[in-house]
Amino acid sequence: MIPPRVALEILLTGEPISAQRGYELGFVNTVVPMAELKSTVAELARRIMRNAPLSVRASKAMVYASNAAAAEGAFAAAEQLFEKVYLSDDAQEGPRSFGESRPPRWTGR
Length: 109
Hints:
Order of helices and strands: HHHHH
Number of strands: 0
């Protein structure tokens, strides 16, 4: 969904992004103040409900099906790539350091 360089920045820093940045990247369609959230969602639902139900259902299914195929391969590759990470000493150090309220001491093992 986003350019690899942006994905790498998010993944490698682990820093959260703002709603505005999420909008700029295409993660979210609209950013509204909390007070307007319910009315904005209700209006979007009304706009969708004006369309033919079979077309709406088929459109959703088409998007989900096309994304599912790509996601399956990506998840399988990620699982294989991260298996060593999950079994590492560093995987234990992260939660331990958090529980002890101290910065982690990474070893790369």
